[in-house]
Structure formats: structure tokens, C-alpha cells
Amino acid sequence: MSINPTIKEKIEQERDVLNKLVSIHGIEHPLVIRQSELLDELINQHNNDTKTSSS
Q1: What is the per-residue DSSP string for 7-24?
Q2: Pick from 16, 36, 46, 54: CA 20 to 30 A from residue 24's CA?
Q3: How many whole angstroms separate alpha carbon 31 and alpha carbon 37?
């Protein structure tokens, strides 16, 4: 099972951005919600890539 390090790094970067946005704007701010959606997309992509490579 090979994991793409760039997507893992990108997930961590975007998670850091999300945490900073939450601390500045609060959890319900539209920027926070959009960042959360972006992070979800990256995580889903990573999970799909992992499933595909392990099949």
C-alpha cells in the first residue's frame, strides 16, 4: 500500500489552515465551512487512492 506523500502533506497543510480559520472566525463562518469542505475532498481523494492501490 503506497501512500502519496504529497496528498498527505496537503491534508496536513489544509488542516492547519482550517484550525487557524476556526480560531479567528468561529466554527460557523463561511470561510471555515468552505475550508472544511476542501479538507473533506482531499481526505476522500486520499481514501479513494488508498482503496484503489490496495485492491
Answers
A1: HHHHHHHHHHHHHHHHHH
A2: 46
A3: 10
DSSP state of 27: T
Q: Is 29 helix (H, G, I), strand (E, B) or coil?
A: coil
Global pTM reads: 0.83
The count of other CB atoms within 10 Å of the CB of residue 4 is 13
C-alpha cell at 8: 498527505
Question: Tens of pLDDT along 1-55?
Answer: 455 569 999 999 999 999 999 999 999 999 999 999 999 999 999 999 888 887 6
